[in-house]
Every structure is written in structure tokens, then in C-alpha cells.
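Continuing the series of single-chain predictions for the mutant panel. This is the parent chain; the variants come on the following pages.
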Amino acid sequence: MRNKRAIPNRSFRIADQIQRDLAELIRELKDPRIGMVTIHAVEVTPDYAHAKVFFSVLIGDPQESETGLNEAAGFLRNGLFKRLQIHTVPTLHFLFDRTTERAAELNELIKQANSTQAKD
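Parent structure:
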């Protein structure tokens, strides 16, 4: 019973460590396409073969950043291999996370609705 509970916790710990290490490694990249990137979440498959890395961009083009990050995935994976104490370092797949963008859009719509309502 104990092992079944330990595996998910280990998966979360590894995903969290990957997120922290990637944030540092990405800052070292010299690719001009990669803007000011924030890593929001990392989801690791149960076999640790793949990791989806969700990010947002404060400054720069999201599509260009995604392309640049995915092209640098091998370099970043190699950097993780040197830092992590695990047998298998996952293949990285970077995905732009629109959550922050959507929240800003919804906020704007709410402001517009409230200002229209106040005028009436």
C-alpha cells in the first residue's frame, strides 16, 4: 500500500523540480525568439518518458517562444540530466498556456459590462 501512494508524490516532486530547474536553464538561453517566459506547470507521464511544460510569455511572441523552446528542448533536457538525480529524464514538450491571457480578456469584458451597466 505504501508504494502506491509514494509514486504519485514522487511524480509531483520531480515535476516541481523540473519546473524550478527549467526556469533557471531557460534564462541562460541566447535564442532571441524566446521572450520573457514563465513556467506555469509541468506534467510528467507515469513512466517519466515525457513532460509537458506549460508556459506563458510576459514579453515576446508566444508562437516564436514555443518554437524556440521546443528547438532547445534537447539542450534543456541535457541540462536537467546534469541536475536531476533520476534515471530517466523526460523528453520535454513546451506548450503555450493561454490561462493568463484569457483571464485578462475576461477581466476586460467584466469591466466593459460594469461600465455599461453603470451608465444605464
